[in-house]
């Protein structure tokens, strides 16, 4: 009927000439790009202002999510759209603009294709239940860095958390120098990882810093111990840790040894 069904993007050409095989994107996908070119003279991508990671079975279980889905927020940019909307580190985005977020890879594509400055509904999984928020989509300009400021602790108390197989310490000035830890970064330092534990199997290393346990900030080994005990009293099998490794934040769900 004379309607555009696709936009040609490439051809298959072993010899340099056309052999009649082409590749295209659907016209519906191209509409957004065409609209942006007409309106702005260039393409613009939606931006949420978060760092994300994969939701594993262990992480889903530790957060009470009955299926593995969504994108886990491991960091929120200080002045990004997500921060202004109330999205927090540890949330799992399961719907964005009424579109289901099947896995981590789905979210960047959905956000990028969303109209700039459009208010959209976001459904996140937080504290064992879905919560609806509204976010105004920003424009992706450049990568931004997450900065974390927390109270300073310098004493060198150490404590072994048997249930995690970790030897922990506060961050002293000596440890800052040894592990090259910035002055504005605080938490609980991991000094040793016992072999044949879940922590060892999942790649936790000495020098990693625990920022949160079960979505609660921790500043001393005793804080970690208290949160782990709470998880055990609640009959949970995993504790969710937010780990900082040389400036990179990631969540790990560690199996609790209850022997």
Salient structural properties:
seven-stranded antiparallel sheet; 17 strands; 7 helices; six-stranded antiparallel sheet; alpha+beta; 33% strand; 259 residues
Please tell me what the overall shape is: elongated
Quaternary structure: single chain
Distance between the termini: 71 Å
Q: Please give the share of residues in helix.
A: 10-25%
How would you spell out the order of helices and strands? EEHEEHEHEEHEEEEEHEHEEHEE
Write the layout of secondary structure elements.
Blueprint: E1 6-11, E2 22-26, H1 27-40, E3 46-47, E4 50-54, H2 57-62, E5 71-76, H3 81-85, E6 92-96, E7 99-100, H4 106-112, E8 119-126, E9 129-136, E10 138-139, E11 158-161, E12 166-169, H5 173-179, E13 188-193, H6 198-201, E14 209-213, E15 216-217, H7 221-233, E16 238-245, E17 248-255
Antiparallel strand pairs: 1-2, 3-10, 4-5, 5-6, 6-7, 6-8, 8-9, 11-12, 12-13, 13-14, 14-15, 14-16, 16-17
Q: Can you characterise this structure?
A:
The chain is an alpha+beta fold. The protein contains seven helices and 17 strands. Strands 11, 12, 13, 14, 15, 16 and 17 form a seven-stranded antiparallel beta sheet that branches. The longest helix is centred in the first third of the chain and has 14 residues, at 27-40. It is elongated, with a radius of gyration of 23 Å. The model is unreliable at 143-155 (pLDDT under 50).
Short description:
This protein has 259 residues and is α+β, with helices and mostly antiparallel strands. Helices cover 22% and strands 33% of the residues.
């Amino acid at each position: 009927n004379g309607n555009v069904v696709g936009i040609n993007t490439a051809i298959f050409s072993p010899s340099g000439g056309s052999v009649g095989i082409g590749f295209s994107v659907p016209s519906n996908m191209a509409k957004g790009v065409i609209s942006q070119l007409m309106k702005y003279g260039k393409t613009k991508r939606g931006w949420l202002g978060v760092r994300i990671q994969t939701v594993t079975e262990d992480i889903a279980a530790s957060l009470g999510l009955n299926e593995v889905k969504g994108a886990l927020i491991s960091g929120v940019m200080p002045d990004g759209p997500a921060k202004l909307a109330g999205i927090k580190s540890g949330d799992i985005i399961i719907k964005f603009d009424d579109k289901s977020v099947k896995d981590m890879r789905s979210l960047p594509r959905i956000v990028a294709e969303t109209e700039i400055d459009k208010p959209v509904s976001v459904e996140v999984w937080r504290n064992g239940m879905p919560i609806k928020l509204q976010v105004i989509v920003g424009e992706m300009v450049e990568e931004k860095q997450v900065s974390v400021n927390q109270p300073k602790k310098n004493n060198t108390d150490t404590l072994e958390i048997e249930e995690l197989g970790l030897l922990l310490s506060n961050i002293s000035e000596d440890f800052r120098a040894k592990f090259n830890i910035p002055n504005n970064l605080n938490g609980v330092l991991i000094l040793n990882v016992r072999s044949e534990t879940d922590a060892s199997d999942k790649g936790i290393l000495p020098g990693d810093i625990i920022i949160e346990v079960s979505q609660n900030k921790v500043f001393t080994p005793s804080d970690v111990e208290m949160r782990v005990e709470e998880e055990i009293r609640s009959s949970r099998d995993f504790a969710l840790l937010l780990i900082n490794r040389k400036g990179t934040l990631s969540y790990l769900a560690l199996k609790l040894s209850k022997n």
